[in-house]
Specification:
By secondary structure, the protein is of the alpha/beta class. Helix content is 52%, strand content 12%. The chain is built from 18 helices and eight strands. A five-stranded parallel beta sheet has the order 2-3-4-1-5, with helices on both faces. It has a three-stranded antiparallel beta sheet with strand order 6-8-7.
Length: 376
């Protein structure tokens, strides 16, 4: 055994990572494991587009972190490379209104942004369909995190416009893939009847990954992202076990590997150990929370902050504290409460208050300190 105390230690210009980008949220893996049947179903739905016809519409559903977005990204990438089908993915967590969705589609079709103001939805919509007909293109649109359109009351109008495009403009060919991680949301049931009558989608379900599947998938990230022997099987098994405990959301495991690697580097170690995983888990287990909070508006984040500071409470009491900061009316306040409930950031329960009738009790579903830390 060497007497050198620095053996196994990193120097300033070294890293345990071979390619840290492998652990970023937008990374699309070359090999997509354990999703063969889902990919075949998506290909079946999109095959008519390759022949110049409107593709079948699809609902892709499943718990968070089960490969829905990656499946669509890989399929769209293949269509771009091998066919003339025009494909566009819209992140509805960011673009959560009909107008903003179509602005994003305009930008995709024309390769420049529409004017910031002064253009009506009708004109915006007409220019998109005109361009598709002029170029004789089929457009496949993926509405990722479509549940956010529902939270804002924009889903029916958005889907109605997309699904009726061929009637509004003869020759326009648009197919829709809606992606939802909200298992409590019945997409069809929540749509207007006029949309239900034309939206008859194929359903593709992405089930939760098992622990051995998680190990298999994360092993590839380890092989590509870390230097050889930096992460051993014991560490990988622990990461997979913690990921499974968080509902099998791969984003937890991927984030945990990255943070554990960074913790190992902080110790100047060439290898990631169990202590690094345990130290990193306190942050990685809140991946869902961080993602949800990033997608909230300033006023929505403000209400979450009030709830965390107050430790929850009756809706009327929380509104008073919220109104002091925001000056928003009770109607908008109630809409935000409903959205936070749908996102599972809070729980709401009606209780009877002596002399005051029924009142909603609001409770945070996360540790208040963890929430406040992520709102800073």
């Amino acid at each position: 055994m060497s007497d050198d105390p620095e053996e196994g230690m990193l120097s300033w210009d070294e890293s345990v990572f071979r390619d840290e980008h492998v652990f970023e949220i937008d990374y699309v893996p070359e090999t997509f494991r354990h999703r063969d049947s889902q990919m075949e179903s998506l290909k079946y739905a999109l095959r008519p587009a390759v022949r110049g016809s409107r593709p079948l519409n699809v609902i892709a559903r499943g718990p968070p972190g089960t490969g829905k977005t990656t499946a669509v990204q890989k399929l769209f990438s293949e269509l771009r490379a091998r066919t003339d089908v025009n494909v566009a993915r819209v992140n509805c967590q960011v673009d959560s209104t009909r107008y903003s969705v179509f602005s994003r589609l305009f930008e995709h079709v024309f390769e420049y942004e529409p004017p910031a103001s002064g253009i009506s939805f009708k004109k915006l919509f007409g220019q998109i369909t005109d361009k598709l007909v002029e170029d004789d293109e089929v457009l496949a649109v993926a509405l990722d995190d479509v549940n956010y359109l529902f939270y804002e009351g924009e889903a029916s109008e958005t889907l109605y416009s997309l699904l009726r495009a061929h009637e509004a403009h003869s020759g326009a060919k648009i197919g829709v893939i809606v992606i939802s991680s909200d298992l409590d949301l019945d997409v069809i049931e929540e749509l207007d009847s006029r949309v239900q009558s034309v939206f008859r989608p194929e359903e593709v379900y992405f089930n939760k990954y098992g622990e051995r599947e998680i190990v298999d998938i994360l092993q590839e990230r380890v092989d590509r992202g870390f230097h050889e022997d930096a992460v051993g099987p014991t560490v990988l098994d622990r990461v997979a076990g913690l990921t499974a405990a968080q509902g099998g959301d791969l984003r937890v495991g991927i984030d945990l590997l990255r943070r554990a690697g960074m913790h190992a580097e902080m110790r100047a170690s060439r290898t990631v150990e169990l202590e690094d995983v345990e130290a990193a888990y306190d942050k990685s287990k809140y991946v869902h929370l961080s993602r949800h909070l990033r997608g909230l508006s300033d006023s929505e984040q403000m209400l979450v902050e009030v709830l965390a500071e107050e430790g929850g409470g009756r809706a009327g009491d929380i509104y008073e504290a919220f109104h002091d900061r925001s000056e928003l009316g009770y109607t908008r306040y109630s809409e935000i409460i409903n959205k936070l409930d749908q996102l599972d950031i809070i729980d709401t329960e009606y209780t009877t208050v002596d002399g005051r009738g029924r009142s909603r009790e609001l409770t945070l579903n996360y540790d208040a300190d963890a929430v406040l830390e992520r709102l800073e």
